[in-house]
């Protein structure tokens, strides 16, 4: 149960990072865009991996 809560928090952070990617594309800030994209990929990967791990048992 604790890991599922962690996965939901990680997924929420990943979604916020995706919002930041869209915003940085609008502002054309490439440095912040790179960090936002890396954050979205990393947190998204770990949240999906945690959810799959919890479902698979």
Report the end-to-end length measured between terminal Cα atoms.
11 Å
The main β sheet shows up as:
none
The gyration radius over C-alpha positions equals 13 Å
Percentage of β-strand residues: under 5%
Continuous helix count = 2
Describe this entry's structure for a reader.
Helix 1 packs antiparallel against helix 2 (30-56). The radius of gyration is 13 Å and the shape is elongated. It has helices at 2-27, 30-56. By secondary structure, it is mostly helical.
Explain the layout of strands and helices.
Layout: H1 2-27, H2 30-56
Helix pairs in contact: 1-2
Pfam family, one: DUF2759
Keywords: Membrane, Transmembrane, Transmembrane helix
Organism: Oceanobacillus polygoni
Offer a quick outline of the entry.
This protein is an all-alpha fold and 57 residues long.
Give the key terms.
57 residues, mainly alpha, 93% helix, elongated, membrane, DUF2759, DUF2759 family protein, transmembrane
